[in-house]
Amino acid sequence: MPPTPGVPSFAVIPGAQVHRVLDGRHEEVVRLIESAYRVHGGGDTVNPPSYFLRFPDRPTSRIIALPASLGGDAPVDGIKWISSFPENVAAGIPRASAVLILNDPATGYPLACLESSIISAARTAASAALAADRLTEGRDRPRRIGFFGTGLIARFIHQYLAGTGWSFEETGVYDLSDEHARGFAEHLDREGDNGRVTLHTGPEQLIRSSDVVVFATVAGAPHVTDPAWFSHNPLVLHVSLRDLSPEVVLAATNVVDDIDHCLKADTSPHLAEQLSGNREFIDGTLYDVLTGELKIPDDRPVVFSPFGLGVLDLAVGRHIYDTLRADGRLAVVDDFFHEMRRYG
Fold it and tell me: Could you tell me the CA-to-CA distances from 128 to 26, 131, 335 in Å, in that order?
């Protein structure tokens, strides 16, 4: 990025380029995400609350704005604009779509618009893989994993776990849609190295038979309510945030990405706060785990609930921009900034 003030060029980075930069670089992306968490935990970010655009005539749909500023060695400002339209799935297109705008910290000018559904999925999966690694340190390495929800995010989490050295003797699959569950199971069979792939007929069976449970659904309210299902103390990657009842949350060790962000918008931790009247059930953040401030006990289930921070998207987007710029592959829009004289 330009080191001194001056009007930068503006580039458009399509999904194909995003994919080429990130494909197969799972460990590198996880390191980027860990670095961003450390910068955020160290106070060198601005990450205001997300803004939810909702529609009275389309109550299941929303578009979310995530503005942020990332400091550290690779500073960048920007905003992610991501939509979630669940009815898309029935039409055969992905539920979520997104763009990411990067802004030059020196001038404020936008530098690039990136297709961001891949970035969003990658940073979510990298965050989950990082949490899985650090939250199971000192425990026996989990050998059984279960996926509750089988969309794009589940696929990316599986890829990032496999790409960072995880392997499982058994992989369980459950989805409210039998068709989607079968499709994901067939994908796992094609990928190989997943041990026995089992299609489960209900959530209890999936959870009780998994050492790691991945929730990647579009649930808007808790639907898993019995803490006894977690009596074997699994690691729960609660990526979709609204699957677990307050009773399940309160019976677990709870780690979040950012306390203030996560305890809002009727997430499961937010509902647990409302029920308990306090935040004492939150044991700490992933940053606390990374820095050794929080040690994870092995006598309770561990629930990681990441709200999803805009600074993570910026870290990945900045990396993609810098990579393409260094390689001379930026698709620059000539004369994007037109009115550049104060008085014409």
Answer: 12, 5, 40
